[in-house]
Amino acid sequence: MTDKTRIRRLPERAVSEQETIYSILDEGLVCHAAYVVDARPVVIPTLYVRDGERLLIHGSNSMGLARAVRSGSPLSVAVTLFDGLVVARSAFNSSANYRSVVVHGTARLLAEDEKFDAFDLIVEKLIPGRLADLRPSTSSEIAQTSVIELPLDETSAKVRSGGPEDDSNDLDQDVWAGVIPMELVPGEAVPATDLRDGIDLPDYLRSYQR
User: Fold this and answer.
1) Most exposed residue of 15, 35, 91, 118, measured as fewest CB within 10 angstroms of its CB?
2) Which residues contact 110 (CB under 8 A, 6 or more apart)?
């Protein structure tokens, strides 16, 4: 643990087990990446995948995040899984159930020869089985895209679960209390409007889960 990763607010919710941290990152789809450009803080949402002890984030060569990495800006990347609204008997004790990870570090842009494998890895981790159906990425597509590698050397995680924690003198209030669970559930796949007839939905999309 470093000064960057120490949980100061409600430290009892801190999680240090690597297995739990990795499971949160693997279930998530979107991270929020924060960086500094021209002395101005910026936060953007983007897709990511975890590959071992690193995060891989891809996007356009011209995006601000890639420019920030080129200039040496440190990054902070947050992933949050929202598991439920905690409905307490008072506004003060109302809360949320969540699992979150924050990663701090200095990222690097992958070299051209590294990006082909990284692209394949990103596709396969986001949609397992998809890579076998796709044509290979072209050199032009690779050249137009950046892949950012952020080591998982400095991470902090925080988890809240369970019901409301009301003050004892509020327990007699005639007010409902409990939890409204929330979860991200894939819907039924919608075909593209220009999809040719006779192309069936592949099994790996029919049963897609995080």
Assistant:
1) 91
2) 118, 146, 147, 148, 149
Task: Give the separation between CA 104 and CA 150, rounded to whole angstroms.
Answer: 8
Calculate Rg over the CA atoms of the chain: 21
Tokens 């669970």 identify what position? 181
Q: Which residues contact 33 (CB under 8 A, 6 or more apart)?
A: 43, 44, 45, 46, 57, 65, 75, 76, 77
> How far is residue 81's CA from residue 87's CA, in Å, rounded to a whole number?
18
| Distant-in-sequence, close-in-space partners of 27: CB < 8 Å, separation ≥ 6 | 81, 99, 210
Confidence check: pLDDT of 175 > 80: yes
- Burial annotation 74-108 (CB, 10 A radius, 16+ → b, else e): ebbbbbbbebbebbbbeeeeebebbbbbbbbbebb
* Least confident range of 9-13, 42-46, 148-152, 186-190: 9-13
Tokens 């891989």 found at = 56
Kind and range of the H or E run holding 49: strand 40-51
> At residue 171, what is the residue type?
L
* Gap between the Cα atoms of 41 and 93, Å rounded: 31
Closest CA to 30 of 104, 119, 116, 100: 100
Which domains can be identified in the chain, with CATH numbers?
11-183+198-206 (2.30.110.10)
